Amino acid sequence: MKKIILAPAVALAFTGLVASPVAAAESTSAQSTSSQTAEQKKVEAHKAKKAEAKKKADAEAAAKKAEADKKAKEKAAAEKKAAADKKAKDAKAAAKKKADEKKAAEDKADKKDDAKKPPKKVAPKPAPAPKDEDKDAKDDDNSEDKVNPINASVQVVSGDVTAEELHEDGVTVKVTGLEKGDKVSAKSGLTGPAVTAQGSTATMKLRSAKELSQESVAYAVQVQRAGTSPDTVADTLNLKRQGPAPGNISLPTNEISIEDFEKNGIDYSGAGFTPEAQIKVYGGHGKGVWHGGEDTATADAEGNISGHLNAPAAEYLEAGTYLVYAVDPKTGSTKSVEFTVTDDSVTPIDASIKVDPKEIAAEDLANKDKGVTVTVTGVKKGDKITDSLTGKTETADADGDYKLHLWYEGKASDLEVGKLPFTVNVEREGTESETLNGEINVVDEDEAVDAIDASLKVDPKEITAEDLANKDKGVTVTVTGVKKGDKIKDSLTGKTEIADADGDYKLHLWYEGNPDSLEAGKVPFTVTIDREGTESETLNGNINIVAEDSDDDGDNPEAPAEATFKVSPKTIEAADFANEKKGVTLAVENCEPGADVHFEVNPKGINVTAYENSVKADDEGNASVNVFGTSSDVSAYVGAYTATATCGDDTMKDSFMVTEGANGGGSGGGDNGNAGNGGDDGSQLPRTGADLGGLTTGALLLLVGGAAIALTGRKNKIGQTPTSF
């Protein structure tokens, strides 16, 4: 047996270890190699098993984490849904409670109404809240099924504008195909405030963020409707050129007076024509080219032209729209531009509007007999006035203010609380038209405010300067027709007082200066009434200053009796009111003998033409007229009326009521002895609406059955007084 001696520090390749210098035991090579291989496999198997166990543990940990994350998300979603369901349920319960309370209040109010009064319209109530969540879900599904898809469109309705006008003033666009409650907002291209549709259409005022240089601008608006996805509708606005542009012709002005046009003609310029071409330029008006309105311009190397056109002959020259157009013979294209010739005698429109009352309930705005009064200030006789609410065009019959009666022609339920926009367009021949923008503030019925209808009376009628300058004396001014909370301010003391009740309010006025500065005669003053939610009203009055008494007894002369105004009867049946031998008598007593006494009758919220007439007081200072209806449709007169009498500086008001008949306040005394006169004295006024000299403040004339419903009157016999009834 051979012995193998291993040298010191020899590496054993199969173990990777360094052996110490030892002598190996005698063994065969095969046995040694086999033993070492088995050991190696055992080590590797142990490592593999350990790695497998770690992999399995990691997988189980990942699965547990994923499961925990899933449960956490499901829990959060469930909590969110539960909170949303609770919020919806609470909201429905609150809505039901509010609706029930409103109905209870309305039912209570209805019981107090007169039996003949039409039942009050109750606003639609929200449906009762379902009792379970499944019903909620079902209702929601049904509601979503009923939502109509958005099918809207948009277009500009305010006419052509320049880039400068678009940036500074903006344009009015109209969005159609809407439903009430749709939210409409500017999306791109142009900017402007969002609006809420009150019906099937909505108008918006849009403008550019900066002055544009391009010839057109694309813009879009977004329409949002509850229960469906928003939609975007778009349009393109072409801008009016401000100066010569490629392929166009322009003028130094778009408006010229007849005098300047006749004297100087008009210059033109253009660009974008065929270089060196002979461009034919014509002036047109009416049916063709005006005499002398032709010119030939040679385009320069860049295609620019310029020239001059003479005005038409004087017999053909008139205010209106004219046209200058140029024809390029090389391309066959025609370029044109309009201009306006104005009559210097025509004043440009400078109008404004005012709405009264400032606030109104939806039911009243949708009632043609109520509505609002829009006063258009600054009109001229012959102006055409068109409003966007009714679409009607009226013609001003005098210079100054013109009153429009506007109402909403749809259903009251379509109106939402808030501002309802409208426009009034004024057209005047010979000058540019003007569009005025206005708003009607729609409020809840309980919040509607009555317009101010007040008058004042001074007592005593005459006073000395010493007494007027004495704070403890002075005069008492009674303001009639105030409402609780009205603020009342006089110009003499400058103080503001607040009415503590409806009806009459008494002011104590005096002169705060030196009485020596007061002269005998009239001292004018004003009383201004402010009422929240409507226009203020200023009343004018006078205090008569008289000289101190110079008699030996030292007594002041007796002041004349105060003028009085009486309406009789205060309540009358419609049949008696339409009887010219009955009607209602308006009488003034103690006016200045021979003075003009002016009577007016104005209907309240009904379409009956207002009445006015002036008569002279007799030698005793008395005057009266009889007012009656002229239509066979007597029911049209049913309603309330305000009567006014003006005697010198005093304006006195009263009222009367025309009833259907069941509760008419007796017509006895309404005839007051005039049957024998019957107008035979020639003092009876015309009784047709067309001939009636009525108020020129926009009073309405309603045609019923072909007959004009109007008020007219006749003078009573001179000398009749209120005590004669």
Explain what you see.
- The protein has 725 residues and is of the alpha+beta class.
- Helices cover 17% and strands 36% of the residues.
- Residues 1-32, 119-125, 129-133, 135-141, 550-554 and 663-725 have low confidence and may be disordered.
- The chain has 7 helices and 44 strands.
- A hairpin with a 6-residue loop joins strand 32 and strand 33.
Binned, the helix content reads 10-25%
What's the shape?
A: flat
Point out poorly predicted stretches.
Answer: 1-32, 119-125, 129-133, 135-141, 550-554, 663-725
The rounded distance between the terminal residues' Cα atoms is 169 Å
β-strand percent reads: 35-45%
Quaternary assembly: single chain
Cα Rg: 45 Å
Major pleated sheet: 5 strands, mixed
Structural class: alpha+beta
Which strand order does the major sheet show? 11-17-16-13-14
Write down the overall mean pLDDT. 77
With helices defined by DSSP (H or I, 4 residues minimum), what is the helix count? 7
Work out the number of β strands.
44
Quick rundown:
With 725 residues, this protein is of the alpha+beta class.
Layout of helices and strands:
Blueprint: E1 11-12, E2 17-18, H1 29-112, H2 133-146, E3 153-156, H3 163-168, E4 171-176, E5 183-188, E6 195-196, E7 201-206, E8 216-224, E9 231-238, E10 248-250, E11 255-257, H4 258-264, E12 266-271, E13 278-285, E14 288-298, E15 305-309, E16 320-327, E17 334-342, E18 352-356, E19 359-361, H5 362-365, E20 372-379, E21 384-387, E22 393-395, E23 400-406, E24 418-427, E25 434-443, E26 455-459, E27 462-464, H6 465-468, E28 475-482, E29 487-490, E30 496-498, E31 503-509, E32 521-530, E33 537-546, E34 564-568, E35 571-573, H7 574-577, E36 584-589, E37 596-603, E38 611-616, E39 623-629, E40 639-647, E41 650-659, E42 702-704, E43 707-709, E44 711-715
Parallel strand pairs: 11-17, 19-25, 27-33, 35-41
Antiparallel strand pairs: 1-2, 3-4, 4-7, 5-6, 5-8, 8-9, 10-12, 12-15, 13-14, 13-16, 16-17, 18-20, 20-23, 21-22, 21-24, 24-25, 26-28, 28-31, 29-30, 29-32, 32-33, 34-36, 36-39, 37-38, 37-40, 39-44, 40-41, 42-43
